[in-house]
C-alpha cells in the first residue's frame, strides 16, 4: 500500500513495546527451570526492563520532537508498560518466594552477609524491583507528554472560565477593576455558627448519629476485624463530619483564611462540638444488654483476642472488662484525631488541587502571594506546584512506610523524592510575595 494510508497501522516501535512488556512479565517465571538461587531469571528480567525503559524514552523523545497529536491507541500503548511493570512485580515476588529471598535481599546487600545466596541473585532481584517502579514513572511521564497539548488547552480554558466568573462577580459587586479570585462567603464578623457550623454540617452530624447503631450492630458480628474502615469510623466517630466541613471550603471560603486554611481550621474546631455527642451515642448503644449478648455470641473465647472490636484486653473497645469512662475518653480523643485527619486529607487531596487547577487566583491571598499582574502568572504556577508538593509530602512517606524495601511501592516513593525536591526549588524560585519579593 502506498500513500498516507501506509503508516496507519501499528508502528514497529509500538509492537516492540508490547513484546517487551509481555517478556518482562514472563521472564521471572523461569525460576522453575533455573538451578537453585541462580541469578539468570532476574538478569534476563532486568535486561528486558532496561530495554523497555529505553523504548519508553524513545517514545518520549519522538513525541517531543514531532508534536503530532496523540491518538487513543497511543495512550493505550503508553499505559501498557505500567500495567506490565505491576504484573512483573507480581511475578518477581513469586520468583523471590521460590528462592526464599523476598524481604531479605536488600538487608543482605546492605550488611554484606550472604547466607549462601549469591550476590548476583540479590542484586539483580532488587534492581529488577526498582526498575519496575521506574517503568511505572516513565510510563506516566509518556502519558503526560502525549496529553500535554490537551492539558495546556484544558488549563487555559479553565483559567479563562475562572477569569470570566471572577469578572462577573466583580462587576456584580461594583468593583470591575479589581483582580480577585477569592469570593468570601464567611467573615470574621459572622457568628460562630455561620462561620464554622453550617446547617448541612449539623445534618451530617445527625445522620452519622442515626447510622451509628446499625453500623455498630454489624460490627458486633465481625470478631475478626474484617470491616476495618467501617470499624474505625464507628470506634472513633467524627471523621465524616470533619471531611464534610473541610470539603465545604470549596464553596464556603472565608475572607480571613481563604479556602485551604479554612478547611483545616474547621477540621480542628468543629469536632469539639460534634465528636462528644457521637461518643455518647456509641457509649450508650454498646452498653445495652442485647448488644453485649450479640458480642458474646460472635466472640471466640479461645482466641488471643476474642473479639477484635468489643472483647478482650487488646480489643478496640473492651466491653467485657473495660471501663465506660475509658471508652468515652478514647472515643472523644480518637474522634478528634480522625476528624482532623479526614479534614487534612480532604484539604490536601481535594480542595487544594481542585482550586489550583480551576481557580488558582483564589489561593493567592491566603498564600500571601502577590496579585500584581506582573507576578500573577508565576504565582499561579506556584500554587499548582505547591498543591503537588503537599500531595507528594503525604504520598511518599505513606508508600515507603507501608511497603517493604524490595516492594514496588517503596521504590515508587523513593523515585518520587527527586520530583519533590525539584518542585520545591521551582516553587521557591518562581514565587513572588506581596511586594514582589520571594517568601
UniProtKB/TrEMBL annotation:
Chain ranges passing through the membrane: 15-34, 40-57, 78-101, 125-147, 201-221, 227-251, 263-285, 328-355, 376-396, 408-428
UniProt entry tagged with the keyword Membrane: yes
Keyword rRNA processing: no
Source organism superkingdom: Bacteria
UniProt keywords, alphabetically: Membrane, Transmembrane, Transmembrane helix
Protein name: Uncharacterized protein
Lineage, broadest ranks: Bacteria, Bacillati, Actinomycetota, Actinomycetes, Micrococcales
Amino acid at each position: 500500500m502506498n500513500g498516507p494510508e501506509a503508516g496507519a497501522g501499528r508502528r514497529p516501535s509500538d509492537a516492540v513495546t508490547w513484546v517487551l512488556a509481555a517478556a518482562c512479565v514472563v521472564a521471572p517465571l523461569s525460576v522453575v527451570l533455573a538451578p537453585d538461587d541462580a541469578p539468570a531469571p532476574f538478569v534476563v528480567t532486568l535486561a528486558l526492563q532496561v530495554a523497555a525503559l529505553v523504548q519508553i524514552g524513545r517514545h518520549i523523545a519522538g513525541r517531543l520532537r514531532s508534536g503530532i497529536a496523540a491518538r487513543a491507541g497511543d495512550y493505550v500503548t503508553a499505559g501498557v508498560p505500567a500495567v506490565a511493570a505491576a504484573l512483573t512485580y507480581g511475578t518477581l515476588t513469586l520468583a523471590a518466594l521460590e528462592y526464599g529471598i523476598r524481604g531479605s535481599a536488600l538487608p543482605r546487600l546492605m550488611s554484606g552477609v550472604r547466607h549462601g545466596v549469591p550476590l548476583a541473585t540479590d542484586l539483580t532481584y532488587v534492581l529488577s524491583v526498582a526498575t519496575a517502579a521506574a517503568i511505572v514513572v516513565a510510563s506516566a511521564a509518556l502519558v503526560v507528554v502525549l496529553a500535554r497539548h490537551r492539558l495546556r488547552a484544558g488549563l487555559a480554558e479553565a483559567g479563562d472560565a475562572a477569569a470570566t466568573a471572577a469578572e462577573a462577580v466583580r462587576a456584580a459587586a461594583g468593583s470591575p477593576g479589581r483582580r480577585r479570585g477569592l469570593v468570601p462567603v464567611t467573615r470574621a464578623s459572622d457568628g460562630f455558627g455561620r462561620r464554622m457550623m453550617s446547617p448541612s454540617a449539623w445534618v451530617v452530624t445527625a445522620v452519622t448519629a442515626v447510622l451509628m447503631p446499625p453500623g455498630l450492630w454489624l460490627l458486633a458480628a465481625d470478631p475478626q476485624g474484617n470491616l476495618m474502615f467501617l470499624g474505625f469510623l464507628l470506634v472513633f466517630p467524627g471523621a465524616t463530619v470533619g471531611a464534610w466541613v473541610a470539603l465545604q471550603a470549596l464553596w464556603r471560603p472565608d475572607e480571613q483564611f481563604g479556602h485551604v486554611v479554612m478547611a483545616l481550621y474547621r477540621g480542628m474546631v468543629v469536632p469539639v462540638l460534634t465528636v462528644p455527642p457521637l461518643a455518647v451515642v456509641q457509649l450508650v448503644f454498646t452498653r445495652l444488654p442485647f448488644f453485649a449478648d450479640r458480642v458474646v455470641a460472635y466472640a471466640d473465647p479461645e482466641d488471643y483476642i476474642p473479639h477484635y472490636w468489643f472483647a478482650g484486653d487488646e480489643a478496640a473497645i473492651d466491653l467485657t472488662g473495660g471501663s465506660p469512662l475509658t471508652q468515652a475518653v478514647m472515643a472523644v480523643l480518637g474522634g478528634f484525631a480522625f476528624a482532623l485527619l479526614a479534614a487534612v486529607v480532604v484539604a490536601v487531596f481535594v480542595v487544594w488541587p481542585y482550586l489550583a487547577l480551576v481557580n488558582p487566583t483564589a489561593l493567592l491571598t491566603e498564600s500571601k502571594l502577590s496579585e500584581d499582574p506582573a507576578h500573577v502568572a508565576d504565582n499561579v504556577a506556584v500554587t499548582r506546584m505547591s498543591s503537588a508538593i503537599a500531595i507528594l509530602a503525604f504520598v511518599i512517606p505513606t508508600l515507603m512506610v507501608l511497603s517493604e524495601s524490595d516492594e514496588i511501592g517503596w521504590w515508587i516513593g523513593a523515585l518520587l523524592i527527586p520530583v519533590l525536591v525539584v518542585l520545591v526549588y521551582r516553587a521557591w524560585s518562581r514565587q513572588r510575595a506581596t511586594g514582589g519579593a520571594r517568601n
